[in-house]
């Protein structure tokens, strides 16, 4: 079928004849005017959006133009053509009030060849200067169906800067790449928010690119995850960012295609500001982190140093040492069960089954620690009773194949199928309510996202229900745990994924989730302090995963919670995997260092402080720097392989501050707002504690 375009006059006449649809949409405009020859210039005083007569847009911050006049929206048709120029017809302007407070909304209408009517609504919010919400829709104003192959929105090229650009992406990949990366020539990342591997997918639907002076962020603010992409790519004149969708659809005459509500934000500094704004927006839409129990901030010992072939005698022998060095949680990791799926107690380790699992939790409590148990929901192993008797729980793709969980050689169960939900609610109820564990470690890269499910037994209204309702599955488990113990800790650890924001209401503790470097510990910590709040209970994961296997500094300096998987007095006698050189045993020398860091953490409890994420840019500032305010003091952390030069203490209040090296206790002199730069020489890290000494000084 070939669609015949109308003339410009015919297209405008058709649209103007349907102008009553503005009122039909429930709008009460305060001003309506036809588009001028130059288009429209809209601003909240910080972000500016200029729309030309072809409905192309240019983004600015203040008086600074950040992009060119870009084709920000386009529709790809199934016949191979693209509609990317829409003649601007009129603009409607009205006050705005609602869940995000007061603001102003601008509605723009245009047409492309008389085939599609484009509606672009731009909402500025008084609480969020520099941010706009975009609602884009396309209405078929013709008399024939229009096949759409895909679309893009809020797509712009951030103009180049001589110092280059950095990027943040919330997508997950099997190679567990850094969430924050420098945009080098040729850089390109699709950032699909669905599955980018059989068991790697989901994430936070926001991307950001920034220069030294200004940045641009794009994302969606829907209450459920969507199968969209947030591509970032280096261009000859800058860095491209936007949002796109590839789901084919057919728009019938008179019908409308609505795109996800889109966030676009100009910002200064790195990705912290837009993610913090995104968190606050989503909280106003009903998605927020739950109450955080005090025990979520307690330092952690995990028995994973003994791996799956642990013995209870090994763990019992190590408990007194873990308590002695200042740790409060004891985590029983993978290996207590016979398989993923059946979740039967391994009677070779726990001969009395359930009774011994309860006895283990009681033994941990008797040692003065809190027991937490590992679980990998939604994974089922081949050969298990569950798979034999309840294959209906499997998530199946379009061809009827199961989704593989590579780490355990398992299959994924559908989280939107009620029997699956009921099964794991019962498991959680047993672990917390009957066995007496005080926390859950929910683990596995498959936890973050799942593919659309085509299992006919589930009778999904749409295959995407499995992906969109994953958050409901986790919330059901969280609610079950809290019902059994209101102070229970629910940790979600989607190994190596970029955390799925929509799952945050179902967890009150989060780890760095298998970091591949100390850099990942720090960038993940900064990201979580934006997404969960400045006092997010973020653990640096096992310190043995950090650089040199002892980098507590990277966890401490970002306000993280220390965690370790040391063995004592010796390593596992039967490791399931090859141990690294030196193993995990807590030697006398390591014990001195471990004790010092854990004592420093317990003394200052920076994880409970306010992470000041806007003070430093994790990409451009050298040395890398972070700051946490706690108890009137500001705690600074600087990182570099080796540094000799000045460092600047940003965010100081009025008056003078006494400075000391928090790790060594050495005095570093005095500082103030006027004299905030101090000389520094260090390898790996420098921790500076700034204490106000004048009555007027305040963090």
**Fraction of residues in helix:** 10-25%
In the predicted model, the low-confidence regions spanning at least 5 consecutive residues are: 1-8, 10-30
Strand coverage percent: 25-35%
The global form is globular
Query: How many distinct helices?
Result: 12
The whole-number mean of residue pLDDT values reads 94
What is the C-alpha radius of gyration, as a whole number of Å?
27 Å
Care to count the β-strands?
A: 39
First-residue to last-residue Cα separation: 67 Å
Largest sheet: 11 strands, antiparallel
Structural class: alpha+beta
Give a verbal description of the structure.
The protein is α+β, with helices and mostly antiparallel strands and 699 residues long. It has twelve helices and 39 strands. Strands 1, 8, 9, 10, 11, 13, 14, 16, 17, 21 and 22 form an eleven-stranded antiparallel sheet that branches. Strands 30-29-25-24-23-33-32-31 form an eight-stranded parallel sheet. Strands 6, 7, 12, 15, 18, 19 and 20 form a seven-stranded antiparallel sheet that branches. The protein is globular. The chain starts with 7 loop residues before the first helix and ends in a 7-residue tail after the last strand. The relative contact order is 0.08. Residues 1-8 and 10-30 have low confidence and may be disordered.
């Amino acid at each position: 079928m070939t669609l015949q375009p109308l003339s410009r006059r015919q297209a405008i006449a058709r649209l103007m004849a349907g102008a009553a649809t503005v009122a039909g949409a429930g709008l009460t405009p305060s001003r309506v005017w036809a588009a001028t020859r130059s288009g429209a210039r809209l601003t909240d005083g910080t972000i500016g959006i200029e729309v030309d007569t072809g409905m192309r847009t240019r983004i600015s911050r203040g008086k600074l133009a950040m992009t060119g006049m870009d084709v920000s929206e386009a529709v790809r048709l199934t016949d191979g053509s693209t509609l990317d120029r829409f003649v601007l017809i009129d603009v409607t302007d009205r006050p705005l009030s609602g869940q995000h407070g007061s603001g102003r909304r601008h509605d723009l209408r245009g047409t492309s060849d008389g085939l599609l009517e484009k509606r672009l609504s731009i909402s500025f919010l008084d609480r969020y200067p520099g941010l706009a919400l975009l609602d884009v829709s396309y209405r078929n104003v013709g008399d024939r169906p229009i096949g759409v192959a895909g679309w893009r929105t809020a797509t712009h090229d951030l103009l180049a800067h001589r110092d280059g650009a950095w990027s943040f992406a919330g997508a997950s990949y099997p190679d567990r790449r850094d969430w924050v990366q420098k945009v080098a020539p040729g850089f390109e990342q699709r950032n699909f928010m669905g599955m980018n591997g059989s068991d790697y997918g989901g994430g936070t639907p926001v991307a950001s690119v920034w220069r030294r002076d200004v940045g641009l962020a794009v994302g969606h603010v829907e209450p459920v995850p969507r199968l969209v992409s947030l591509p970032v790519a280096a261009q000859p004149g800058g860095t491209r960012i936007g949002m796109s969708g590839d789901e084919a659809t057919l728009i019938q005459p008179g019908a409308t295609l609505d795109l996800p509500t889109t966030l676009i934000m100009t910002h200064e500094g790195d990705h912290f500001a837009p993610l913090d704004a995104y968190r606050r927006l989503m909280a106003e839409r009903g998605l927020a982190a739950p109450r955080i129990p005090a025990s979520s901030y307690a330092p952690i010992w995990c028995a994973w140093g003994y791996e799956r072939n642990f013995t209870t005698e090994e763990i019992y022998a190590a408990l007194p040492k873990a308590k002695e060095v200042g740790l409060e949680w004891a985590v029983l990791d993978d290996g207590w069960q016979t398989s993923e799926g059946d979740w039967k107690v391994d009677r070779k380790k726990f001969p009395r089954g359930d009774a011994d699992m309860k006895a283990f939790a009681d033994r941990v409590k008797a040692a003065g620690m809190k027991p937490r148990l590992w679980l990998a929901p939604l994974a089922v192993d081949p050969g298990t009773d569950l798979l034999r008797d309840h294959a209906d729980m499997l998530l199946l793709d379009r061809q009827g194949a199961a989704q593989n969980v590579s780490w355990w050689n398992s299959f994924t169960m559908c989280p939107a199928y009620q029997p699956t939900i009921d099964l794991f609610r019962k498991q959680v109820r047993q672990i917390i309510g009957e066995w007496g564990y005080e926390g859950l470690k929910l683990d596995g890269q498959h936890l973050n996202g799942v593919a659309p499910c085509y299992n006919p037994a589930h009778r999904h209204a749409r295959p995407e229900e499995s992906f969109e309702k994953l958050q409901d599955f986790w919330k059901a488990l969280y609610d079950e745990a809290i019902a059994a113990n209101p102070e229970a800790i629910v940790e979600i650890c989607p190994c190596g994924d970029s955390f799925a924001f929509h799952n945050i209401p179902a967890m009150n503790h989060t780890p760095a989730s298998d970091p591949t470097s100390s850099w990942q510990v720090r960038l993940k910590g900064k990201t979580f302090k934006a997404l969960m709040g400045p006092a997010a209970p973020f653990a640096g994961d096992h310190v043995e995963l950090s650089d040199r296997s002892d980098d507590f500094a990277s966890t401490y300096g970002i306000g993280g919670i220390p965690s370790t998987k040391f063995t004592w007095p010796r390593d596992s006698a039967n490791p399931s995997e090859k141990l690294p050189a030196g193993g995990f045993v807590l030697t006398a020398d390591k014990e001195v260092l471990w004790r010092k860091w854990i004592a420093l953490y317990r003394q200052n409890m920076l994880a409970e402080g306010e992470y000041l994420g806007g003070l430093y840019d994790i990409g451009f500032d050298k040395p890398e720097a972070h700051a946490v305010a706690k108890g009137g003091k500001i705690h600074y952390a600087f990182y570099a392989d080796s540094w000799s030069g000045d460092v600047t203490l940003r965010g100081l209040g009025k008056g003078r501050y006494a400075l000391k090296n928090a790790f060594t206790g050495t005095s570093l002199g005095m500082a103030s707002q006027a004299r905030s730069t101090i000389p520094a020489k260090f390898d790996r890290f420098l921790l500076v504690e700034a204490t106000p000494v004048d009555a007027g000084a305040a963090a």
